[in-house]
Amino acid sequence: MPTLPEILDQLQFISQEAALLGLFVTASIILVGRDWRSLILALLIQYILVGLVLSRLVRPDIATLKVLIGAFICPVLFLSARQVSVSGLATNLAMKPRLSSNRSRSGSWWRRSYPIVVSLIKGQDRRRRPAATGLMFRVFGALLMILVAINLSNAIALPGLPSAVNTAVYWLILAGLITLALTEDPIKVGHGLFTALVGFELFYATVENSLLLIGLWGAINLLIALAIGYLAVVRGTGPEEEV
Amino acid sequence: MMPAPLWLILLPIGTVPLVYLLRRVKLGAILAAAMALLLGWLAIQLPPDVVLNLLGRSIELDSLSQVMLTILFLATSVLFLIPLLCPPSTSGTSHSGVKGKEEKIFYPAGLAILAFFVAASLSHHLGITAIFIQAAAILTVFVIQGERLDSTRAALRFLTLMSLATPFFLLAAWRIDLYQLGGGQASAINLEQTIFFVGFGFALWLAVVPFHSWLTTTAAESSPATAAFVLIAFPIVVFLTLIHLLADLPLLVDSAQLVRAIIIAGVATAFIGGGFALVQRGFSQLMGYSALYDLGCILTGLGLGGHAAVITVLAALSVRTLALTLIAIGVSAVRMRVAGDGFAQVKGLAREIPMAVAALMIGGGILAGVPLLAGFGPRWQIIHTGAEVNPVLPALLVLGGLGVAIGYLRGLRAMIAPGHGPARVTFAEPRLLLALISLLIVVSILLGLFPALLIEPLQLLTMTVSGPIQ
């Protein structure tokens, strides 16, 4: 079985520009998407892409470490989000059939399963969502941030980084910050925060030589994931909260 | 042999498992408070010492850290006792859903947070300090949230803003390392970047407007004791880090840009904090905004500099600690009687819990800088120094202070107004609580009448520390 550095080595055919495109997609999903599965998958791919970019800029073991940290963060978020989702789904299913129990019993399998399928695609949304931050708003926000990131990378070039990586750093930080500004759901906040932090790390790993600091920062990232997981579970089990 | 300052880290960490096991019984709170008290005594008794060198920078206990940590430990020991002395009302949940169970995790987590703060205070490397403060912030999330299920807003905002600050400090530390490796030569652009990173990071840590939401939501949503802990502990450690940084790097102080930014940030925070305090409708929210006002004043005092700046900051942080402890006791006592602390809920309470009301008013008065109370001395010093720089500065600070004072007077008016709800059973404040409130009130008035009682010991303890900004 290939090791993680070997996998990263095999992925070297992906150019930095292609990785940047990938990061545009993953961070856009995190910014726009609502389903927790797609968010976590996007975050994991984001960590892999960042590791791939870093493997050409810093020592391969540091790039591998970044991917590993991402690979630990995502399961923490996954388990928390899944627990919340399962309890939420159970609540919804316990409430709805009571209202239309007769119809459900006589309906087809598809009619009974339809609400579950829709919730899997659109995500569980038990909260009141302000109309101002709806789907179109977030799509426009993502497009605007892409433009800002491209302009910023042209105007303020970060030292020692190729142009594509420069744009990636700005894009990830901006996408993360705007995600943070648009939500108060812990899982989504976690994704926004980690997107912004991974953008910072993409730059920081290339300039910081101290392994101690890089290691400590990695440990802090894991602890942040645990805290966010805790808050997600707390919020998921609590009563509805107005945003 | 182990360096003596490391005991300040090992003792609280070693006590955490025991306190965790005992957290649901009174002994847990008493043990945690006793440990914090012991740490306070140790911090002032230990000789200043270099522990080790890390990344080219010393890890040491200096006299400034000793004083700051002592204040922090003593305040924490009192805060650990508040949930014990003031069990909250069981008649329902308050507006913020506080149910009174949230303190259980406070004792063990609080001790671990203190250990992280000691580690952060000992380190003179900005990156390491930032990592330790971030670790403390992550643990604080559990303290702020407690066992509440209704809202995660405060904990989430706190975690987010603290986590966003750390990268700025890591980048600043990288820049500072480059500067020191380069033999103290910094280009203008490097200096500008360092100032930007440092300024932005401290703005997030110190809840400078518009990054103040972690502070005000924590005050509004968390239980009074844990909120006061966060509002006291983080500013103490952050100011200590800022003073260390400015003292270690004179090139930052030479930048008029940074000094001006500190003053403007401080005055804006104080003015806006005071303005918002004026219109609050509950004591928890009022505590948050009045603490924000006070933080702005202290930041202004540091930015204005002068030979007495460090003493002024130390005195201001000491009286802030006293004030927030009094307010936390007052709000906790209010919540013993009614489910919430909104002005609409506290009508008529002045007759039932007069000492708690006095604690609230005196605490608020200290934060507002009211004459004859402990907060007046440091505030007068800041206003006096500010007037020499720009006459608008003291005017804005005084206006902010008026906002805080009027906010508390509105609260007092609500408490002395006759209650219109069903008659409550007769209630007597617990004797230990009365003794604690009386002691703190006497100290507040004594320090107001004789500020030298506080200033002179602080001067003696920090004789070797000079103000970073002259």
Helix content of chain A: over 70%
Helix content of chain B: over 70%
Number of domains of chain A: 1
Side-by-side strand order of the widest sheet of chain B = 1-2
Low-confidence stretches of chain A: 98-104
- What is the residue-mean pLDDT of chain B, rounded to a whole number? 88
- Judged by helices, strands and strand pairing, the structural class of chain A is mainly alpha
Number of strands of chain B: 2
Number of helices of chain A: 10
Order of helices and strands of chain A: HHHHHHHHHH
Beta content of chain A comes to: under 5%
Structure characteristics:
A: 243 residues; mainly alpha; 10 helices; 80% helix; B: 470 residues; two-stranded antiparallel ribbon; 2% strand
Explain this structure.
The complex is a heterodimer of chains A (243) and B (470). Chain A is mostly helical and 243 residues long. Chain A has one domain. Chain A has ten helices and no strands. In chain A, helix 8 (163-182) packs antiparallel against helix 9. The longest helix of chain A has 40 residues, at 60-99. In chain A, 41% of the residues are buried. Mean pLDDT of chain A is 82; it is low at 98-104. With 470 residues, chain B is mainly α. Chain B has one domain (4-461). A two-stranded antiparallel ribbon of chain B has the order 1-2. Mean pLDDT of chain B is 88; it is low at 92-98. The A-B interface holds A 180, 184, 186, 189, 193, 196-197, 200, 204, 207-208, 210, 212-213, 216-217, 220, 223-224, 226-228, 230-231, 234-235, 237-239, 241 and B 54-55, 127-128, 131, 134-135, 138, 141-142, 145, 148-153, 155-156, 159-160, 163-164, 166-167, 170-171, 173-174.
Briefly, what is this?
Chain A is mostly helical. Chain A contains 10 helices and no strands. Chain A has one domain (4-242).
Give me the secondary-structure topology.
The complex is a heterodimer of chains A (243) and B (470).
Chain A: H1 4-10, H2 16-32, H3 36-55, H4 60-99, H5 101-106, H6 109-122, H7 135-155, H8 163-182, H9 186-207, H10 211-237
Helix pairs in contact in A: 2-3, 2-7, 2-8, 3-4, 3-9, 4-10, 7-8, 8-9, 9-10
Chain B: H1 7-21, H2 26-45, E1 49-54, E2 57-61, H3 63-85, H4 106-122, H5 126-145, H6 153-181, H7 188-205, H8 213-221, H9 224-248, H10 250-253, H11 256-278, H12 283-304, H13 309-337, H14 349-352, H15 354-368, H16 376-389, H17 392-416, H18 431-449, H19 452-461
Helix pairs in contact in B: 1-2, 1-4, 2-3, 2-4, 3-4, 3-9, 3-13, 4-5, 4-9, 5-6, 5-9, 6-7, 6-8, 7-11, 8-9, 8-12, 9-12, 9-13, 11-12, 11-17, 12-13, 12-15, 12-16, 12-17, 13-15, 13-16, 13-18, 13-19, 15-17, 15-18, 16-17
